[in-house]
């Protein structure tokens, strides 16, 4: 007689289904902020490493040993370019501008011959360190600017015009517009061809002038007065971005503020945030910095007229 086989115990009843709970909104926001902060920190570290690598390489190739004085090296770099025939309309002087502050971090901007502007991209405990930080990022861009791809040539113009046409009207614009100086694309080609042989950093001030004219609404006003784009480009191509131009644009913003209260403050806040983000990212700053300076000038003039 065979022993009876024990029956297997019945499986336990299934647990009641539980609802999956989504994490609280505050947790999601915090996680996203932490991830963004981590990306920003990594990007800043990569930027610092790239700048240091260029500066160290520059030191090795120019002196062969020791640390390079980036402020002196930057000035000597542009003096060398001028001596070799670069078309620097306002000379080879590198201009520094420290932002007034009674405490750290200190901020410094540097404007290169040709009009490009860069700023200190690190948290600088001293004004001297802020100047060095600005000089570092400017030196790196000056060195990279020597690459043939940064020089305005026939090939560069064709590529730039093609890209501009592709982004205009979704790429559906008339290809013949590029040869018509009275169209936006045609005016862009005219500007590039007028500066053939120069580098993009040497071309920056002229580009900034037209960016400001567009931002300020001046180009639209000129079109309404039946001015052709060719006439506008020809006029402003020979005009420097000076205090008179800034004062005129400041007056335009004062008029806007008088028509719509708060317009000046909103635009100034936007310009300050744009400039700060671009500075910390190590980007070229001339356009956002000029916008802020013009709006600050308008704010100061308006405040003075109201208090008098």
What does this structure look like?
With 308 residues, this protein is mainly alpha-helical. The chain has a domain at 64-146: Double Stranded RNA Binding Domain (2-Layer Sandwich), CATH 3.30.160.20. It is built from 11 helices and 3 strands, in the order ααβββααααααααα. The chain has helices at residues 25-62, 70-83, 127-144, 154-167, 184-194, 204-216, 218-224, 229-236, 243-259, 263-280, 286-307; strands at residues 95-98, 108-111, 117-119. Strands 1-2-3 form a 3-stranded antiparallel β-sheet. Strand 2 (108-111) and strand 3 (117-119) form a beta hairpin. Helix 5 (184-194) packs parallel to helix 8. It is globular, with a radius of gyration of 28 Å. Residues 16-20 have low confidence and may be disordered. Residues 1-22 are annotated as: Disordered. Pfam families: LIX1.
Observed structural traits:
single chain; 308 residues; mainly alpha; Double Stranded RNA Binding Domain; three-stranded antiparallel β-sheet; 11 helices; 3 strands; 4% strand; globular
């Amino acid at each position: 007689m065979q022993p009876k086989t024990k029956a297997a115990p019945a499986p336990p009843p299934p647990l009641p289904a539980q609802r999956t709970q989504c994490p609280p909104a505050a947790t999601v926001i915090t996680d996203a902020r932490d991830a963004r902060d981590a990306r920003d920190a990594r990007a800043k570290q990569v930027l610092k490493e790239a700048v240091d690598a260029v500066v160290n390489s520059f030191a090795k190739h120019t002196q062969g040993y020791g640390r390079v004085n980036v402020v002196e090296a930057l000035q000597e770099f542009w003096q060398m370019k001028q001596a070799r025939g670069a078309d620097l309309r306002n000379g080879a002087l590198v201009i520094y501008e420290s932002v007034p502050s009674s405490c750290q971090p200190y901020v410094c901007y540097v404007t290169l011959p040709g009009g490009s502007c860069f700023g200190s991209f690190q948290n600088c405990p001293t004004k001297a360190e802020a100047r060095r930080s600005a000089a570092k990022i400017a030196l790196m861009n000056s060195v990279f600017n020597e690459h043939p791809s940064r020089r305005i040539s026939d090939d560069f113009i064709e590529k730039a015009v093609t890209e501009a046409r592709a982004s205009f009207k979704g790429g559906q614009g008339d290809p013949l517009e590029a040869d018509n100086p009275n169209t936006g694309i045609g005016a862009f080609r005219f500007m590039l061809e007028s500066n053939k042989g120069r580098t993009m950093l040497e071309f920056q001030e002229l580009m900034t002038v037209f960016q400001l004219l567009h931002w300020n609404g001046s180009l639209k006003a000129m079109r309404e007065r039946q001015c052709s784009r060719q006439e506008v480009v020809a006029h402003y191509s020979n005009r420097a971005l000076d205090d008179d131009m800034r004062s005129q644009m400041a007056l335009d913003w004062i008029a806007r503020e008088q028509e719509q209260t708060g317009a000046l403050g909103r635009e100034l806040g936007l310009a300050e945030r744009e400039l700060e983000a671009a500075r910390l990212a190590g980007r070229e700053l001339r356009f956002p910095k000029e916008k802020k300076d013009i709006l600050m000038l308008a704010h100061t003039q308006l405040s003075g007229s109201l208090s008098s």
